[in-house]
Amino acid sequence: MTKTITAHIHLDDFGRAWIDDTNTKVIEVVLDKLANGSSPEEIHFQHAHLSMAQIHAALSYYYDHQAEFDAEIERQVQAYDQLRDKVKDSPLRQRLRAMGKLP
């Protein structure tokens, strides 16, 4: 069962923040803001299914819980780096390198 946190935002059973009536997590909007420096209007252009109120609510929720979001983003970056390092020398990459298709 989900718990309503604020207008337009709810938490799922795992504690992830979602934008109401969408299939969009708050962290997705936050990453657009952080990675691209997107304004709410630019985010709306990229995610036309979100209302401006939903976008502002997501950003507001992020700023109210910034430390937790920033820690989760860092955790995801580290997990990605570990996976990338694991496959860096995979047999497929070695064959592609031998064929001259990868540096």
TrEMBL record:
Entry-linked Pfam families: DUF433 (PF04255)
Superkingdom of origin organism: Bacteria
Cited InterPro entries: DUF433, Homeodomain-like_sf, WH-like_DNA-bd_sf
Protein name per its UniProtKB record: DUF433 domain-containing protein
